[in-house]
C-alpha cells in the first residue's frame, strides 16, 4: 500500500508509538496516509483505538517478521 510518510516506531514501548504517530500525522494533510512500523504488540489495539477516537481511519495492518505495520488515513 502506498503511503505519504513512514514512521519507524520499532523498539519503542507504549505509549511512545502513539506519541510518535500523533506527531507524525500532524504533518500530513487530510486524506494522506501514514505508515507505521512497530514491534510493541500493544500497538495493534492502541493504534486502532487512537485512530478511531481521533477521526482517522486505520486502513489495514499486517505483521511481517515480528514487525507490525499499520496504514492510517488522516481524517
TrEMBL record:
One Pfam family it belongs to: TusA
Residue ranges occupied by any UPF0033 domain in the UniProt entry: 7-31
Coiled-coil segments on the chain, per record: none
PROSITE patterns, alphabetized: UPF0033
Record InterPro entries: TusA-like (IPR001455), TusA-like_sf (IPR036868)
Family: Belongs to the sulfur carrier protein TusA family.
Protein name: UPF0033 domain-containing protein
Amino acid at each position: 500500500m502506498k503511503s505519504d510518510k513512514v514512521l519507524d516506531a520499532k523498539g519503542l514501548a507504549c505509549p511512545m508509538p502513539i506519541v510518535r504517530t500523533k506527531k507524525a500525522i500532524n504533518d500530513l494533510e487530510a486524506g494522506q496516509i501514514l505508515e507505521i512500523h512497530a514491534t510493541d504488540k500493544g500497538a495493534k489495539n492502541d493504534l486502532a483505538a487512537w485512530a478511531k477516537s481521533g477521526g482517522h481511519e486505520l486502513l489495514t495492518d499486517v505483521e511481517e517478521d515480528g514487525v507490525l505495520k499499520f496504514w492510517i488515513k488522516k481524517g
